[in-house]
Input
Amino acid sequence: MQRSIFASLGQQAFFEGHVHALNVLGGVPTGRVRHDDLRAAVAQVLGLSRRRVEAERRTAFRSHYGLDAFYCQPGIRGADEKGGAEGQTGWFRRNHLVPVPEVDMLAARNAMIERWDQEDDARRIRSRPRTIGECFAAEQPWLVPPPEEPFETGRLSTPRVDRYSQNCVRMNRYSVPGRLIGWTVRVMLPASALVAYDGREEGARHERLITRDATRLELSSPATSKPPPGPAYQFRHRELQQWLAQRPDP
Output
């Protein structure tokens, strides 16, 4: 079982977790991958059966990797279909994440989790004769190679950069280089980061904010600004304009 921690609980984290697990396992299962009715994957449950109306991007992800759709039965009939995964997740949380390790960045915590996952290969679940690593080695030949083209897990948006050199994405504001003021930029929002592009090149990268109405600033000098479209752009806050003029070129 592969685990990761993300800054959000949205659909991007659902996809990134799957991509990370498939990359670590080294292949894609040829059989069914069982899922519960989480909102990132399921738009509607059709009666007391396994039939579902999938979220649009979930269908695209499943088609990209060639996965078969298979969902747990709702209610009591499906209560024992995912108990093993939930039980092992609870064991891992109690033994490694209680109390929660204090780190500066999520990347450091995920590195710790990856090391614990590797150590788990030598562990036996209850009285089973083989370790987790030995069980996986027996099943690994059944995996097929993943597609060469990666699946884009992030959410794409095209906000307009305001006069304060910021764009608003998912109710939060992030700074971009001053040369992009007044322009519409392409922004990719994965589970734990935000990437703003200047044409085909990366213009700014931030750690994703997990609250609402928050701001993450890293202002740069507008000395290399592109001429904005339409009428000339004017700053109303003189203090901000003077502060930006004193900043060195990026």
